[in-house]
Amino acid sequence: MGKHILLLNGSPRSKGNTAMLCDAFTAGAQSAGHTVTRFDLQKMEIHGCLGCMKGGKDKASPCVQKDDMNKIYPAYVQADIVVLASPMYYWSVSGQLKTAFDRLFAVAETDPHYANPRKDCALIMAAEGDSAENWKPVLDYYQALVGFLGWHDLGQVLAGGVLQAQAVAGRPVLDKARSFGASL
Questions:
Q1: What is the pLDDT of residues 98-126, one digit of tens each?
Q2: Which residues is 153 bridged to in the sheet?
Q3: Average pLDDT over residues 79-96
Q4: What is the predicted pLDDT for the residue at 1?
Q5: pTM score, two decimals?
Q6: Are 159 and 7 in contact (CB under 8 A)?
Q7: Number of domains the chain is built from
Q8: In 3D, which of 27, 36, 26, 25 has the Cα closest to residue 2?
Q9: The domain containing residue 151 runs over which residues?
Q10: CB–CB of 169/16 below 8 Å?
């Protein structure tokens, strides 16, 4: 039986390297019978978390802010796997992805103990640098996030050396993204 995959694309480039990796991953996942729900966060109206601790009263619309996160919440709750996709920005994820991810806390607020839903997850990332030293800060952040949430990491697809838009075209990492999606 296919899995429900939520793909949060935090890239501002609609035809950039991260988008191309997301396309390849999605093709592979769909070929294996999985359902992929993708949100290109740059195209959405999503405001930063207010830290108000007033969410969670309505499971269908858990945050007090009413914006495009209301499109993401149902897919997040239903998802078996959450894929975080982003270009590397200052050795972390993009602001678009961080903003949306922070707002998922409203779902945890629906639980009396603030428990986050347990998920499998993966990371897709494009970056200018391609050394272990370059990847370390973002992978440390990702692993800490996954650990604190109690999620299970299924793996990462990391495309280094791709600063210019579409620089990933024709590179083996696109096949890796497709194969990774198909392997889930």
A1: 999 999 999 999 999 999 999 999 999 99
A2: 121
A3: 96
A4: 81
A5: 0.96
A6: no
A7: 1
A8: 36
A9: 4-183
A10: no
